[in-house]
Amino acid sequence: MNWQVYIILCSDRSLYTGITTDVERRLAQHAAGTGAKYFRGRTPERVVYREGGHTRSSASRREYEIKRLCPRDKRRLIDAAHEGQS
């Protein structure tokens, strides 16, 4: 199964990091209030980063690495990914 690590930009400009096999489904769950408790009081706006090709284990490790980054470094990661798409 192809697990993905994703980052969502929230209404308060914070960044939420998670893992899933279906990013669109997970975003819909967060928006409906059936996802993570993090979204109580804030709204998910859009997915700003995706990293695929993981196993469940490697996705969890990568999620942990990203969550440990300071917000500035998370934004650099997002910017670098967007530059690679251009």
Structure description:
By secondary structure, this protein is of the alpha+beta class. The chain has a single domain (3-85), classed as GIY-YIG endonuclease. Helices cover 43% and strands 29% of the residues. It has three helices and three strands, in the order ββαβαα. A three-stranded antiparallel β-sheet has the order 2-1-3, with helices on both faces. Strand 1 (3-10) and strand 2 form a beta hairpin. It starts with a strand and ends with a helix.
CATH A-level architecture: 3-Layer(aba) Sandwich
Beta-strand segment tally: 3
The strand line-up of the biggest sheet is 2-1-3
Mean pLDDT: 94
CATH superfamily: GIY-YIG endonuclease
| SS content category | alpha+beta
CATH top-level class? Alpha Beta
H/E series, N to C? EEHEHH
- The radius of gyration computed from the alpha-carbon positions, rounded to a whole number of angstroms, is 12 Å
What proportion of the residues form beta strands (DSSP E)? 25-35%
> What is the CATH topology descriptor?
GIY-YIG endonuclease
Could you give the distance between the termini?
Answer: 28 Å
Overall tally of domains: 1
